[in-house]
Amino acid sequence: MGEPRVPERAAGEIPFDHALHGDSIGMDCAACHSGANARANAFMPSKADCMDCHRLPLTEKPGIETLDSVLAKADEQPWTHKRFLPEHVVFHHGVHYAAGVACSDCHGEGYMKNRYGGEKFDMQTCLKCHRGETFKEKGFKPAATYCAACHR
Question: I need a surface site. Which of 54, 74, 88, 118 has the fewest CB within 10 A?
């Protein structure tokens, strides 16, 4: 299996691998991204959110030494989010979650989840899903396709 992969990161950013958290131990995305299941925004976690689970140095795990040293120096909000949708487009995570859309349906699986923005979010992709043309196996009901549903 080899050494765990450490995702690319900016200087001072806390190293993070979605596969080590969600895929391997079954954490729900909303455990770190509060709001993902009920609010418009799926917020980025704070350093305190990380420390809720990582209170003690776990030096027996590969990469924890790096985590400990970076956490000690990190800002309280080590991650930022760059909006990829135009300002006039409205997107509500909670509405999609309530309709049965999983985070991975839009954000992908595995390593791609470490690279926000690798997904293709454009009007045609959204319209195809809202018309029921994608994820047919999931049985989603068609959703609103009139302009004001998503554009303000």
Answer: 88
